[in-house]
Structure formats: C-alpha cells, structure tokens
C-alpha cells in the first residue's frame, strides 16, 4: 500500500506515468467515469480549503466513487480532543482512501503510520503540499512542453508557503533547472530548503527582493500569497501582505512566453487585470489539478483500467 506524503514519494519515471494517465483522462474522461464505482474517499480537512478539497472530491466523483468527510476541525471529533491517529483508525473502517489537510507539519505522516488505507497529504502546515505540486508539474509539462531547462521565479511568501517547498523538492530532479527566489528578507525560504535541498544538490539559485529586476529572464513565474494564518502577529502580516503586486505594467517586462502560475487563492499579489493576459495560466492550473488527482486516486487504489 502506498501513501503520498511528499512529491518525492514518486520517482521521476512514476511521475511521467502518472502525468501520462492524467493526459489520457483529459482526452477520454468517459473511459474513467466508473473506475472507482463502490469506492469511498474520506476527505478530512482540519484547515480551510476550497481548491484542494473540492478538487480531490471532484476527482473521486468523476471516477464514479463517492465521498465522505469533514471540511472543518470544529465539526470533527478533533474538537473533543481525538488524536489524528485514532481518527484515521476509525476512517480506515469506512473509506478506501483518505486525504488529510492539517495545520500541524507531519500530521498526515502520523496518520499514514496508523492507517490501513492509502493516505494523501493534502497540505501539512508550512511543510509540504504534494498534490499541488503534481498539479504544478502537469501544468508546466502541458503548457510549457517540458520540465527541464527552466528558469523559475518563485515569488512571495517563500518561508511559510508549502506549495513552494514541495515544488522546489520536485523540480530539482529535472536537468538544467534554475531558481530565482523572490521574497522580502523576512519571508525567504527556510534554511533547510536553501542548504539541504538547493546547495546540497548544486542547484543554481539566486535570492532577490525586487521582482522587476528579474522578470525578463524567467520562463515561469510562480506567485504565492502571504500565508496570513502562519504569522505570529497581525502587524507583521499587514506589513508584508502587499509587498508584491503583479500588474499589467510588470507583465510588460516579462518574456512573451513566460507563464504565470499561482496555487490560489489569490489575495492582492496578482492584479485582476493580469487574468486576461494569455500568459496567466492559474485558472487552467486548477483544471489540471482535477486530472492529476484523478490519476493519483487510480494509482494509489491500484485500479486497473481495461
Ligand atoms: C495553497 C495551500 O493551501 O497551501 N492553496 C492550495 O491548496 N491551492 C496555497 C495557499 O493557501 O496560499
């Protein structure tokens, strides 16, 4: 039995297979519409979510399966003091696969150690967000045509942004990848990413504060929201929240082929006027998220497609 805790749980070859399956699902959705008939996804969200939760649930429904779960810790027995370990033992009796989002780093891992069904980490604190990374990889591969030879700008809250941490981990396995880390000094990537992931693997990267300085060189710009919920004080958040605003005038500095991705939700970091720019692909990214999560569910449940 396999779980998905980190994007590194799949080898590069396995990721290729997963993305090929997602492509096939995109081309022929009806072929898969009953593949998970009789199977249940437990969707356990201890932290708010719109996209990830609905995308996983839609993925299961598109496969002909059904969904149980909760979307708020307050409406689960966590509010009575039940541990994640106990909750998952119980859920293992109800469902065939479970997605967990939790504010504590490592909570899905604890669940996976007690579970008798596959667990998907749907985001754990500021740590990892592997299904978003799978979404990002499929989006890049589909719209850019490659996952190698890319100069990628990651911009915004690189300290608390789990999507960024997962994406860096996943992309360093491809050749000729270079990162430009764009953040205010207070929100730089954590030391373990800089030292143990980037430096240790000799991945070229630079850290800059000004987005305008580097826009023209990028193949991809991955914008992120300042993670309000992970700040210790409100004042600090207010000071940081509008540090970057990507608008039409900044887009004019960027290359014609540079794509803009964002895991969403967006707050102010991308002006709405950018949405009409054909390089803005964050809403297409949402659609790719459903296909790759369908592929993931099929793979973890080891469903054979005839
Ligand atoms: C991200 C998350 O939850 O980390 N959202 C998502 O799942 N698409 C990004 C964010 O909340 O900023």
Textual characterization of the structure:
- With 306 residues, the chain is an alpha/beta fold.
- It has helices at 12-27, 51-62, 84-94, 107-114, 130-144, 162-171, 191-199, 234-240, 248-251, 282-300, and strands at 40-45, 66-70, 97-102, 119-124, 150-155, 177-182, 205-208, 220-223, 259-261.
- It folds into 2 domains: 7-128 and 289-300, Rossmann fold; 130-286, Rossmann fold (3-Layer(aba) Sandwich).
- It has 10 helices and 9 strands.
- It is globular and about 55 Å long.
- The two termini are 21 Å apart.
- The mean pLDDT is 96.
- Residues 51-52, 123, 129, 132, 162-163, 224-225, 263-265 line the site of N-carbamoyl-L-aspartate.
Chain-wise SSE layout:
Blueprint: H1 12-27, E1 40-45, H2 51-62, E2 66-70, H3 84-94, E3 97-102, H4 107-114, E4 119-124, H5 130-144, E5 150-155, H6 162-171, E6 177-182, H7 191-199, E7 205-208, E8 220-223, H8 234-240, H9 248-251, E9 259-261, H10 282-300
Parallel strand pairs: 1-2, 1-3, 3-4, 5-6, 5-8, 6-7, 8-9
This protein binds N-carbamoyl-L-aspartate.
Summary?
The chain has helices at residues 12-27, 51-62, 84-94, 107-114, 130-144, 162-171, 191-199, 234-240, 248-251, 282-300, and strands spanning 40-45, 66-70, 97-102, 119-124, 150-155, 177-182, 205-208, 220-223, 259-261. The chain is of the alpha/beta class and 306 residues long. The protein has 2 domains: 7-128 and 289-300, 3-Layer(aba) Sandwich (Rossmann fold), CATH 3.40.50.1370; 130-286, 3-Layer(aba) Sandwich (Rossmann fold), CATH 3.40.50.
């Amino acid at each position: 039995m396999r779980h998905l805790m980190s994007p590194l749980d799949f080898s590069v070859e396995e990721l290729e297979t997963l993305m090929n399956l997602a492509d096939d699902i995109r081309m022929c959705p009806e072929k898969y519409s009953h593949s998970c008939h009789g199977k249940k996804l437990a969707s356990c969200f201890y932290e708010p979510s719109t996209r990830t939760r609905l995308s996983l649930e839609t993925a299961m429904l598109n496969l002909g399966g059904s969904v149980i779960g909760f979307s708020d810790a307050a409406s689960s027995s966590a509010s009575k003091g039940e541990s994640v370990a106990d909750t998952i033992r119980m859920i293992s009796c109800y469902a065939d696969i479970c997605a967990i989002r939790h504010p504590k780093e490592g909570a899905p891992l604890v669940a996976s150690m007690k579970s008798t069904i596959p667990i998907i980490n749907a985001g754990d604190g500021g740590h990892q967000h592997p299904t978003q990374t799978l979404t990002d990889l499929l989006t890049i591969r589909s719209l850019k045509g490659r996952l190698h030879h890319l100069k990628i700008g990651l911009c915004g809250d690189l300290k608390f942004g789990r999507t960024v941490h997962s994406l860096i981990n996943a992309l360093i396995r491809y050749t000729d990848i270079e990162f430009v880390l764009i953040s205010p000094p207070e929100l730089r990537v954590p030391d373990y990413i800089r030292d143990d992931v980037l430096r240790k693997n000799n991945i070229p990267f630079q850290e800059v504060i000004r987005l305008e300085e580097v826009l023209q060189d990028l193949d991809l710009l991955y914008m992120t929201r300042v993670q309000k919920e992970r700040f210790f004080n409100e004042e600090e958040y207010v000071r940081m929240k509008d540090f970057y605003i990507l608008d039409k005038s900044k887009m004019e500095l960027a290359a014609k082929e540079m794509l803009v991705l964002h895991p969403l939700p967006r707050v102010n970091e991308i002006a709405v006027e950018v949405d009409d720019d054909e390089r803005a692909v964050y809403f297409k990214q949402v659609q790719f998220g459903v296909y790759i999560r369908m592929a993931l569910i099929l793979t973890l449940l080891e469903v054979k497609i005839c």
